[in-house]
Amino acid sequence: MVDSYDAIVIGGGPGGSAISTLLAQAGRKILLLEREEFPRYHIGESLLSGTADLLKKLGVLDKMEQARFVKKFGVSWIWGVKRDLWTVYFKDALATPYDFGYQVERGPFDEMLLNNAREHGVNALERHQVVNLTWDDGRVNGVEYESAATGTRTTVEAPWVIDASGQSNFITRQVATKRWDEKLTNMALWNYWENAHRPDGIDAGNTFLPTFSEGWWWFIPLRNEITSVGVVLDRENYLAAKKEGMKDYYLNAIQRTPELAERLKSAKMIDEMRVLKDWSYTYDQFYGRGFVAVGDAACFIDPLLSTGVHLAMLSGYLGAASLNTLLDEPQNEEQILSFYQEQYSREFNRLKDQIYFLYGGHSSPESYFWHARKTMDMPGASPKQAFVSLIAGAYEHRSWYRRFIMNLDVPDQVRKLADGIFTGQASGSQMVSTDAPLERNPRWQERASFALDGLHLRPSTILTSADGNNLPLTPDMSLVLKHIDGSKNSAQLLEEIGENDERRNTLRSVLNEAITHGAVVVSKEVAAQV
Ligand SMILES: Cc1cc2nc3c(=O)[nH]c(=O)nc-3n(C[C@H](O)[C@H](O)[C@H](O)COP(=O)(O)OP(=O)(O)OC[C@H]3O[C@@H](n4cnc5c(N)ncnc54)[C@H](O)[C@@H]3O)c2cc1C
To answer: For a pocket test of ligand 1, which of 35, 207, 217 has the largest count of ligand atoms closer than 8 A to its C-beta?
Structure first.
């Protein structure tokens, strides 16, 4: 094996496997050190449909199919004032190419990902624990690790060390500040059941999330008729559970949740009780000189939306693109790594915001949908589509609009939606009259940023709104904006800048995109007269 590496990865969970596989695909030499022997037990069993896309990028989706992990097409809830069951399906998510996620036992799942990393050339060593960082002039430049088999300690250096150590936070806890989220200080208590009742058809693999007066439950159907059933409690209810005895509390609480009791009435509990603190947190820095943190090593969010593995793999993907770029162009280190942190935090915060809202005692599914619609940068999507897209982990949705505008291939559902937006018919569209003069919204500013181009980040300018929505500033977008001066309506504008019908159509789409996002608005004088 090589003894000179481009990066060393601490931890072989989904975050560590994802970043090392992608970097290896890009031709980088990677050493991954994992302290446990796989398969090892881990919680975090329910995956999103957006994760299927990341599994595809890692080249492991076929293996997931062969392993016959349970497919999850949707999520069923009893959440809100009424105790009605409501279900959302990933097929309604926009910009996620797959309409299913998986339910996985993390032992075999993580082992599959780690072996897949090896097949891509990663040197992955199990039972090798990182015990120290090494430094050179204030920069992390390697690690010292210990082999469990021999007790030998070895030092190895590389330009980058990646903290993928999960909640061990191996690097972040030494160099950054952890902020606990005081609103999300929950505890989880769970066990496994054989032969729990599952609904028929495509709902059989759904996660089922019923609430009861003390907290909420997860019901995650796994392979071989095993079901993971856990309860999430705030601190007060957890202390009550502790007093009663965990197992007694758990079994009694099931009886206080009739819809769950019904599913478990002929089932048998087969494991010991498991308890874990699931307090949410984020570090103030996800990177520093010589290192990057992915997954739980950077931040962790309450499991209500089953987003942990997805965020670990998404940050692995963003981290891989960032380091792959930096290995070629080290001069942009601060800009690229702050872009990395911004992107990862943004996805994290959007999900956290939705979790706050779901815990906030709001009354109905519709209110949850509308909340998602407000936070998702998805003009034209219905509230429900926005909610499903959010909980599906739709990260690259913005690029689908762009692909539509550039007349590239897009899924039919997106094409239909985009068509709707651009004719002003889609729900929520803020399409303005074509007769009104247009002007630029001064609250949208230009900013230097980066765009993902495969596993590379290239510099790009974006337009960004005060509340953080973004539009890439393509040459066509610049052209359109340059000619908006408050005197012309859209027809006049397109006549001025489009040489022929085809060109005018393209520019119309670009203009409508700017209008739908709010970067271009009806001239103030006109708006005042209406
Ligand atoms: C109660 C609960 C329920 C959850 N439910 C879900 C769910 O349904 N769906 C979901 O997606 N997520 C869920 N999660 C979150 C999920 O478990 C994590 O977000 C996810 O595992 C993070 O992946 P990771 O790769 O960052 O870290 P991990 O998966 O924790 O992997 C880190 C790895 O690093 C290794 N390691 C640590 N220190 C060292 C060291 N010094 N040297 C070498 N190796 C080291 C560890 O052994 C481990 O294998 C849940 C979490 C909790 C607490």
So the answer is: 35
